[in-house]
Specification:
SH3 type barrels; about 10% helix; 13 strands; 6-stranded antiparallel beta barrel; Elongation Factor Tu (Ef-tu), domain 3; mainly beta; 2 helices
């Protein structure tokens, strides 16, 4: 069986015709037009779709149209889906970047302190945010040069700069949510 690799995440619908917004760690995903991709949806359900159109909107953001997804409801059903492709489709220039940042270890670049594992990412209006978690803390790290200092794909490690106030204790976060309810 052919190995599937993660190349991006669907983070929103784009219009009423079924277009979706995608974040990808790859610089160029234009090779996907006409190709089949696997979208792993919520609760591990997977669906095979064919990409019929895509357009880059920012360095790590794209809009995609899939065949047979023609409504906003169809696009919304793919939200937070992970896009996977067969490894053979990946151009050689993109192969190292394909694992994206998920499951990478985040390390403070100054103290080399282990901060946790990247568990998720999502799009903000101007850049992507990485969610780094360990047993006691959650950190939201913008994917910009100011905070993301070095990406070491060989060792599966991100070296980041953390400012005071970026680290939030999980217990405090839960308590604040209860207080809001």
């Amino acid at each position: 069986m052919t190995e599937l690799i993660e190349i991006g995440k669907i983070w929103a619908s784009h219009n009423l015709r079924g277009t979706v917004k995608v974040i990808s760690a790859l610089e160029d995903i234009s090779f996907l037009v006409g190709e089949k991709v696997v979208v792993k949806k919520y609760k591990s359900e997977e669906v095979v779709l064919t990409v019929k159109f895509l357009k880059q909107t920012a360095p790590d953001k794209w809009i995609l149209d899939f065949e047979n997804i023609n409504t906003r409801d169809g696009a919304d059903s793919l939200r937070n889906g992970i896009i996977k492709i067969h490894k053979e489709l990946l151009p050689a220039s993109e192969e190292k970047k394909s694992d994206s940042y998920l499951h990478m270890k985040a390390v403070n670049h100054e103290t080399l302190e282990d901060l946790g594992i990247v568990t998720d990412f999502f799009a903000a209006p101007t850049y992507t945010i990485l969610v780094v978690e360990n047993e006691t803390h959650e950190i939201l790290i913008p994917c910009i040069d100011r905070f993301l200092k070095k990406v070491d794909m060989e060792n599966n490690t991100l070296y980041v700069e953390i400012l005071e106030g970026m680290i939030e204790e999980k217990d405090k976060k839960r308590k604040r949510k209860k207080d809001e309810i």
